[in-house]
Amino acid sequence: MSLSKRSSTRALVVLGFLLAACGSPASQNFFGSGASTGAGATTAQAGTNNGVSGGAQGGAFGQGGSVAQAGSTAQAGSLGQAGAGQAGSTAQGGSAAGGTSSQGGAGGSPPVDCATACAGLGTCQADVCVIDCTMPGTCATQVKCPPGAACRVICGGQSSCASGVDCSQASSCNIQCTGPSSCLNGLQCGGSSCTIDCATEAACNTQITCSAQACTVHCNSKQACSSKVLCAEGSGTCDVECNAESACGSGVESDAATKTTIQCSGMGACPAPVSCKGGDCGVDCGDNSCLSGVCCNAASCSVQGKPNMCQQ
Known about the structure:
Oligomer: single chain
Structural class: alpha/beta
Order of helices and strands: HHHHHHEEEEEEEEEEEEEEEEEE
Strand order of the largest sheet: 1-2-4-6-8-10-12-14-16-18
Number of domains: 3
Strand content: 15-25%
Radius of gyration: 41 Å
């Protein structure tokens, strides 16, 4: 047999052996031994992950040029795996980001739809739920503002809002007690801001409690706010005016964290103790007002018209 024919025959036998070996488990050890040729490493690259790993080992141990090429092929495989890994990470990241966004939406409590929240209570005007109690004797049961919505309650009729107003869960509050003897039996408010106006004689005759970030209470009518006015713990600022005769009959107490301003300029206003604490407190007492004294325990105190009984 001629030399060329012998070479061809040997090549076919070797090729057949290699093709058979590729499908067997032993091929992984074979290609990972470092003795594989470049063609073998390429075949390993096209195989399973274990084959790629074997090719990488071949590249690591072999010194020949063909094995070095196998190492390059294994590196390409590694790059492919890295790309796949990155893609997987990206997919996971996208999933995680989606979950975070969803949780954020739930935790962020998206704005309440005013029309929906206010249905059956009042009317929605410029995203404020307005509850109208302007007729005498209206809103005899306690008025409750819808949670999460801005709320304005108008107690304009005589003896309206007779069971009080609960605005503690609203995003902001504006309570107008403009009817004679209106807003009895307690007022509560919270949210970002709360303004209460007790504008007629004997209005707001039971305790007012404000826990909003900014509390403003006006008791500027005779005998208005006859019970305690309280800016509760959790409130940020507190501004109380008792600028009418005998207003704020049961005193004023402020636990506001940042700043408190209390004016008792009406004749005989604030006859019960006036007290405050927090960061800064200013109390101004007119003639014959603050008869039970003032106690300021704030970090900074300014008391006018009366001595500070708690001066350190």
